From TrEMBL:
GO terms for molecular function: acetyl-CoA carboxylase activity; ATP binding; carboxyl- or carbamoyltransferase activity. Residues 1-21, 730-764 are annotated as: Disordered. It catalyses: N(6)-carboxybiotinyl-L-lysyl-[protein] + acetyl-CoA = N(6)-biotinyl-L-lysyl-[protein] + malonyl-CoA. This is acetyl-CoA carboxytransferase. Residues 598-625 form a coiled coil.
Amino acid sequence: MASMTQSPVSFTGNLASKPSASDLLKSSSNSVYGVPLKALGKAQLGAKRRDFAISAKVRKVKKHEYPWPEDPDLNVKGGVLSHLSPFKPLKEKPKPVTLDFEKPLMDLQKKIVDVQKMANETGLDFSDQIISLENKYQQALKDLYTHLTPIQRVSIARHPNRPTFLDHVFNITEKFVELHGDRAGYDDPAVVTGLGTINGRSYMFMGHQKGRNTKENIQRNFGMPTPHGYRKALRMMYYADHHGFPIVTFIDTPGAYADLKSEELGQGEAIAQNLRTMFGLKVPIVSIVMGEGGSGGALAIGCANKLLMLENAVFYVASPEACAAILWKSAKASPKAAEKLKITAKELCKLEVADGIIPEPLGGAHADSYWTSQQIKTAIVESMDELGKMDTEELLKHRAQKFRKLGGFQEGIPIDPKKKVNMKKKEEAIVVSKTSEVELRDEVQKLKQQIQKAGKVSVDHREPGLNEMIEKLKSEIDYEYEEAAKAVGLEDKIVMLREEVAKARNLKDHLTPVLKEKIEQLNDEFNKNLPSAPNYSSLKYKLDMLKELSQAQSMSEKSTNTDKLKVEIDKRFKEVMDRPDLKQKIETVKGEIAKSGVSELVNLNQDLKEKFVQLSEELESEFKAILESMGLQVYPRTALEAKAKLDMLNEETDMIIEDVINSSNLKDKIDLLKMEVANAGNAPDAESKSKIQTLEAEIKQAVAEAVSSPELKEKYEKLQGQILEATKSSVGSDGSLVKQNVDEQSKHDGSPLEVNSEANRSFV
């Protein structure tokens, strides 16, 4: 600050005829010092002449913080009185701050900058790649900010670059003048009050003011008011009530300042006075939570007719860190606490604590502070228009009822079905008692013996206790996994990730790419550290046992299903055979064969043989219809044999292809192809396309050469011939499959007549 100095003043002459030094000192300002008063007191005042000198120095004074300019601009935005405001634009642009959950976005942004830099340096056109990356960035930004967790919203609400109260006020008002002081000798900079106009209408504005940098934060006490700030706000409330100005309050504070001095000066009493007074003000009040609203420090200027919240603002009775420290003895549980406290705008609107949500741009209010301010302005105007229609009595009743109905409960009233559905089910404690490997081994052996015995006795009881043992093993394995997570230090990360996934599923949304990436990273980290866990051997043994029992259960189920199917088929076949028309035909043919006295099919006459074949075809048609109605397909035996051979050939071919792919030369080409495809992205250039096509052609050619070996070709041609021959021989000239069986039987001399079905056995 500027300093003013004054040269020493010399007094000479007779003191009797001139004013004394004491008189001169009394008439001077308090800033004069350096006078030897002791010497003056001893001076003899009389006729005797004595020369002396007095030196005076004016002390340094602090220059005014915001002096009135010499030529003030009368047309300045906000009116000429805005020259008095100390809130000026920052000389330096605030440094960008990246939150932890925004780091994946920064990687994409860095890629965009690198490509743009490369384009500028080389002069090449990378516009397609830049547009593609920007689209990816915008999509990732949208996915991230539409699925924020409560603790992430807390981080955004506390963002250092988030617009402050005065930022919003100067954006939404045509004129604004700040009013200072509580008329008790103090002016708290953490609470700012003033008069402003919106659309020509005057409002009383008051709110918590945080700093935009470290220096301002220290000056503003990080937005934490002392009792002087609340008393200043109280004075302005009385002023607005007297003159009929609607009140708009902005809330953004971690809480009231809780130092010793504030408590001595009556912090609790100041907040209580504000609460009581706000419920009696006869003007409309609208409160806006623009950042974080902490406890009574926020409520002291928040007892309004309407409480609006910015999309990423939070309003709480205790911070998530404090709540976690109280309940879980660790601030690391703050994400869980933030979710349980229900502190976000969406949750508070459901609970009817807040009355509306003001949207923010993607990236938070700091991404576009002016746009956010205009949304606030629109919300204020709409709310004031609605409240302006109420008379004084209705306005006071509306404000009281808003807070009276919070947390209301009355016994005997049926619960709303919608609320009942959304109620959280009571969590039953799951007690897991760890079983030793020896005990488990014994139990499994006993179970196997029981299954074998039951399989011999009855088909319907092949798996006694198998399902119970599998469930027991699953719970044991879950317990072992939890112990392993604790041992490798990943328990907290797993809990936080589970909560994020549960939140996404509750919202019926798909998992975002960011969340999927987190799951994959944590899974890789857990699998990497799992072998170092002390209980790894026990976990591995139980997993192997579970796999073995699951396979046994699957085979048992298949066997049971097959047996049931056989019983059902026999039952349906018996129904067909018991039909009167078929029964009569069978008896007729049997009688004719008995009369002929022939015991072998080859010796039957042509007429009787044709009747037998016709009856067999009719029975076969009936049986085929039954099998197809049960969802089964009927194939000739030769076709099934050919299919088995074809499957074996396919397996052999797959093994050859796998051996070729695992060869070092081809594997390198495949890795190179993957790298080229990843680097090219969705819009590859001509050079990348050419490389990819060349590599694909080389890989295809190598695989084709391996598959085209003479041995495989010979096997394929042989199998093709067998299938063709089976197809020709399986179907006769009349399309019958049974005729083949009859002809085959006639080739065997002396062989008895056999047909492979229960019905034909009864017929013979």
